[in-house]
Amino acid sequence: MKALTVDVICQTLSNRIASGDFAVGGRLPSERDLSEQFSTTRITLREALGQLESQGVIYRELRRGWFIAPPRLAYDPLLRSHFHAMAEQQGRTAATEVLDAQRVSASARLAQRLAMTEGAEVYRIRRLRRIDGRAVLYVEHYLNPQYFPELLSFDLTRSLTTLYQEEYGISYGRVGFTMLPMPLPKFAAPALKVAAGSPSLFITRINRDRHDRIIDCDYEYWRYDALYIDVQVREEGQASA
Amino acid sequence: MKALTVDVICQTLSNRIASGDFAVGGRLPSERDLSEQFSTTRITLREALGQLESQGVIYRELRRGWFIAPPRLAYDPLLRSHFHAMAEQQGRTAATEVLDAQRVSASARLAQRLAMTEGAEVYRIRRLRRIDGRAVLYVEHYLNPQYFPELLSFDLTRSLTTLYQEEYGISYGRVGFTMLPMPLPKFAAPALKVAAGSPSLFITRINRDRHDRIIDCDYEYWRYDALYIDVQVREEGQASA
Q1: Does A99 have pLDDT greater than 70?
Q2: Per residue, what are the HEC states of A132-147?
Q3: pLDDT of residue B22
Q4: Domain B2-68, CATH
Q5: CB contact under 8 A, A181 and B232
Q6: What is the ipTM of this complex?
Q7: Which among A21, A137, B103, B156 is least buried, having the fewest CB atoms inside 10 angstroms?
Q8: What are the chain B neighbours of A79 within 8 Å (beta carbons)?
Q9: What is the pLDDT of residues B103-122, one digit of tens each?
Q10: DSSP secondary-structure letter at A107?
Q11: Residue B183: which of A175, A199, A232 has the nearest Cβ?
Q12: In A19-114, which residue ranges form alpha helices assigned H by DSSP?
């Protein structure tokens, strides 16, 4: 009986969310109000809310309650459209904020990824990216300055892809992605306004130009509930773009 | 000064782990012992441990302490090798346990994924998969019985890929992947021996045969720290296999 009740509550809440019942501010009524509406216990209600959370339908904010989750962005590594294009193709509004941009020396691990020597000077650009106003991505771009002299003097809120093309005549070639689900590291948490240790998706991109030279490396820290990876693979083990 | 100390502790611990210092049982000394070894406070030590955790170097077990993380499995959706092959290619030992296998009726969502009608009978096979003895993947396979008559009478610890080929002459064609980082749902937690709500990666695979008919759909729930996604994309937006 109890399992049925949880399912019925889930289904009813899902339907009400889908029909726009709670659209104002995107916030659900309090757990107490919801328990009363469903004539159920807090325990059963929380079980139903937990199920909806794991389906990505709602999410919880610390001390603020439950909110309707905006749809996740589909991220297709094979399409390789840049952040703003990807958002716009999906009917969303993208915004980029530059946190800082400076010269730093490459750590051993970064140097290896960029095929440079440890301690070599690289450009580091840290940016925060929003979808429909919500901060979803904290990213650190590391660039080999050899290919992009004076890059730091440009407007860095623009797409780097476009900047590379227009100012340096450089286009992306091969790209390597690794994607690690992991707890959000402490340094990335404040910008995303999420508790450190929350689930996140960490994406490393190593980008090459058309001459197969490694030109930059991005470390992307995503809110876990802001995206999903979507890949269609054809029979031959090749991908359909 | 404090930031330096945390970094130094991280680096020293990383080096000791890499050199095999703690190999026995894979367990780190207690936090108290480690604080003493580094002549530091528990707070600083925990900050260092937290950093190593977010790098995937160590992980925490409830009430048991800190452990050295085994290497993550590289999961390349473009390679499409099955679980056992993927593990063996990476020098790991795979094992599969069948939790149950039965006929169930398709929910609306599942029916849509399988291109069947809601309530239609499907086979559901639930399995637990291990790498080097550790439970890393809880998976639910949903099969269209039309293509696999009497499949439930076979040994289901085998690779389904092989079973399809050998018993039904069916090979995979196009595959669609979606990958969602999300809190581990309650029903998947006990088999993985992880707390419900822990970070996980949920992968849905929709598999077609060479005639482009949808033959099955897998729901994979991975321990977040057991894998990473690795994709190499060529210039044309095509993938290199």
Answers
A1: yes
A2: CCEEEEEEEEEECHHH
A3: 79
A4: 1.10.10.10
A5: no
A6: 0.80
A7: B103
A8: 237
A9: 999 998 899 999 999 999 99
A10: P
A11: A199
A12: 31-37, 42-54, 83-89, 108-114
pLDDT for position A192? 92
Please indicate whether, in this complex, the C-beta atoms of A175 and B233 are within 8 angstroms of each other: yes
Q: Give the C-alpha separation, B122 to B142, whole Å.
A: 6
Q: What is the SS3 string spanning A184-211? A: CCCCCHHHHCCCCCCEEEEEEEEEEECC
Under CATH, to which class is B73-229 assigned? alpha beta
Q: Which residues of B touch A235 (CB under 8 A)?
A: 172-174, 210
User: Between B6 and A87, where is the model more confident?
Assistant: A87
Give B31's Cβ-side CA count (13 Å radius). Answer: 15
Mutation pick from B229, B236, B238 vs chain A, by most beta carbons of A within 10 Å, is: B229
Query: Can you give the residue ranges of every domain in chain B?
Result: 2-68, 73-229
Q: Tokens for B190?
A: 């006990």
In angstroms, rounded to a whole number, what is the distance separating the alpha carbons of residues B176 and A177? 18
Nearest by CB to residue A179, choosing from B50, B178, B229, is: B229
Tokens at B75, concatenated:
């999961």
Q: Which two three-digit tokens encode residue A56? A: 């990505």
Q: Which amino acid is at A185?
A: P
**B229 to chain A: closest CA residue:** A179
